[in-house]
């Protein structure tokens, strides 16, 4: 594996894994006051497109990273929408 | 441009642009209570790695998308850290 490939893998791991602490915090506290609905709706849709892109290319790394990110981002978006509907900590 | 490439461009645009409403909300309200420090520190570091990766590959799309995302994510992280230090809406 080249140095460039290693940087790519570190980048992918960090940007995917970064959503774990946010999802844990959001699910635990149910507080989504300072989370942007616009961000999470656009991001969830974007990650879904990345997943479709990965499936078309049959690229396991793209599929794997985006399947995890989609699960995390969609969970955060779900709590945000529930709070917006319930008008609680929206 | 193929259908697959179009899906890739839509994906990249959405995941990059999604940080605009979050950065606007965070800078405007200064409220970072429900934002995870772990997420924004790991994400900012990860996007920096993507930028280095793009520079190594001389891939303009990777450089462009990640330079914008880095600016937005770093701005959000900056407000979060300032609030944590000031213990205000941390």
Structural features:
mainly alpha; homodimer; Monooxygenase; 90 residues; transmembrane (chains A, B); PQ-loop_rpt (chains A, B); SemiSWEET (chains A, B)
Question: How would you explain this protein's 3D organization?
Answer:
- Chain A has 90 residues and is mostly helical.
- Chain A has a single domain, classed as Monooxygenase (Up-down Bundle).
- The first copy, chain A, is built from 4 helices and no strands.
- The interface between A and B is large, with 43 and 43 residues.
> Which CATH first-tier class of chain A would you pick?
Mainly Alpha
Backbone structural class of chain A: mainly alpha
C-alpha Rg of chain A, in Å?
Answer: 15 Å
Q: What's the total helix number of chain A? A: 4
Coarse shape of chain A? elongated
State the helicity of chain A in percent bands. Answer: over 70%
What's this, in brief?
The structure is a homodimer of 90-residue chains. The first copy, chain A, is 82% helix and 0% strand.
